[in-house]
Amino acid sequence: MENRNLSLIMEAGKMMREIIRVLKKRTGEQAFIKLTIEEFILLNTIHNNDVDVIQKDMAYMLGKDKSSILRLIDSLEDKNMVRRVVDVSDRRKNCLMVTKNGEKGLNDYVVIGSKLIQELKQGVTEEEMATFFKVVNQIRANSEKL
């Protein structure tokens, strides 16, 4: 039984590494602007947030330390994908905004990722996908309680 539990962790890790490997390859070949997975996640989080995105809140939202988020923001700013805007009500706060270039880059990654997902799901039924998501969500919920 112990071996099977360890196998779950190893198989989940292998699956994620393989998906990320293929995604990196595809985006490297097809994307207009090259992003790391972490840059994409940050850019997507900023883009999909309904309220002003405060720089310091990104560390909490993404579960990363502030210095890592700062480096990612600097990199995205260098690529003209985000820009910092000082909050008029509190000059200590920087709000993050996705630029038009950032929207273009984000769209490229979403299209590439969507095509990849369709390929990955080949031979998998809708029922099997529903079961997969049910299991993954339950395991994630259990882990969040720990």
Automatic annotation (TrEMBL):
Residues 2-141 form the HTH marR-type domain. InterPro entries: HTH_MarR-typ, WH-like_DNA-bd_sf, WH_DNA-bd_sf. Coiled coil: none annotated. The lineage of its organism: Bacteria, Pseudomonadati, Bacteroidota, Bacteroidia, Bacteroidales. The keyword Transcription applies. It comes from the Bacteria. PROSITE patterns: HTH_MARR_2 (PS50995). It holds the Pfam family MarR. This is Regulatory protein MarR. Keywords: DNA-binding, Transcription, Transcription regulation. SMART domains: HTH_MARR. The keyword Lyase does not apply. GO terms for molecular function: DNA binding; DNA-binding transcription factor activity. It comes from Paludibacter propionicigenes (strain DSM 17365 / JCM 13257 / WB4).
